[in-house]
Amino acid sequence: MRLFLKALLCYTLGTLKIEKSTVTSVTRKMQVTTMAFEDAQYGDIRATLAVSQDEARTGSIRVVNLPNGRSVTVTVPAGIRDGVEIRLPGQGEASGPGGKAGDLILRVSVIATNRFEGQRWSDNALPTQAMQQPFYPPATQAPTEYVASEYPPPATYYPRATAPETVGGNYSSFAAYQQTPVAPQSYPDYGGYPPYQGYSPLQQDVPPPLRQKRSGLVTFLVVLIVLVLIAGSGSLYYFGYYQPNRLQSAANATAQFQATGTALVAQATAKSVAAAQTQAQATAQAHQALYTQATGGIPTLDDSMSSQSGNQWEEFTSTVNGTCGFSGGSYHAVMPKATFFQPCFAKVPTFSNFALQVNMAIQGDEGGIIFRADEANNKYYLFTMSTSGAYNLYVYVSNKGSQAQTLMSGHSSLVLPVGQSNEITLVAQDSTFSFYINKQYLSSVTDSTYSAGMIGVFGESAQQVTDVAFTNIKVWAL
Question: Strand 366-374 relative to strand 379-386: parallel, antiparallel, unpaired?
Answer without folding.
Answer: antiparallel
